[in-house]
Amino acid sequence: MTRPLILVTPATTVIPDVHGADYAAVDAGLLTLTEQGINPVFACGDFDSLKTPLDPCDVPEGCRLLRFPAEKNESDSQLAVQEAIHLGYDPVILTGSLSGRIDHTLANIRLLTHHHPGLILTDTGQQIRLLPPGTHVVTREFQHISLFALELSCISLESMQYPLDHRMVDEADIYTLSNEVAENEEKGIIHVHSGRLLLVQSNLP
């Protein structure tokens, strides 16, 4: 099953509309989906963020309920991402994953960098994904484009406001912050010659 899955967390404020995607819920994200008339393929978590205990009768027909104890080693988001990947979804998009508690945001970034490199973290107006070696295209969908090396990396940037040619960057470098697609260009090109980087895109001021 190669199709996108939108994982909706309790912090999600806007549910993205992705063509051909299925939807699933993380914890109280179940209510966010059902209030919008969207039936998730599964709902995963301990559901401790619900204001009232979850009644199985409130779970939409066709939605598998994966319930876990509140005291566990994994986060609800981690369990949901693992289930999505087990089912063969690609890509997996975790919404509401960059707002709310900073420890949860850092945990989500670590989930991306150390466990599931194909995961996409999104929130209203911003997105984070991991870039492995290869050529990657960015568009004007996001105004601000930043790169953060996860290890010693070599990159080139074309059709960007601040181009680079085979520049070495490491975990301490922050000068690749706040780039953008060059004026009169529709897209920018990022060549990752070696290493791995986080691509952070944002439309926030």
Kindly describe this structure:
This is Thiamine diphosphokinase. Residues 24-114 form the Thiamin pyrophosphokinase catalytic domain. InterPro entries: Thi_PPkinase, TPK, TPK_catalytic, TPK_catalytic_sf. GO terms for molecular function: ATP binding; kinase activity; thiamine binding; thiamine diphosphokinase activity. Keywords: ATP-binding, Kinase, Nucleotide-binding, Transferase. By secondary structure, the protein is of the alpha/beta class. The chain has 2 domains: 5-124, Thiamin pyrophosphokinase, catalytic domain (Rossmann fold); 131-202, Thiamin pyrophosphokinase, thiamin-binding domain (Jelly Rolls, Sandwich). Helix content is 15%, strand content 34%. The protein contains 3 helices and 13 strands; from the N terminus they run ββαββαβαββββββββ. It has a 9-stranded mixed β-sheet with strand order 4-3-2-1-5-6-7-13-9, with helices on both faces. Strands 8-12-10-11 form a 4-stranded antiparallel β-sheet, with no helix packed on it. Strand 6 and strand 7 form a beta hairpin. The protein is elongated, with a radius of gyration of 18 Å. The model has no long low-confidence stretch (mean pLDDT 94).
In short:
By secondary structure, the protein is an alpha/beta fold. Helices cover 15% and strands 34% of the residues.
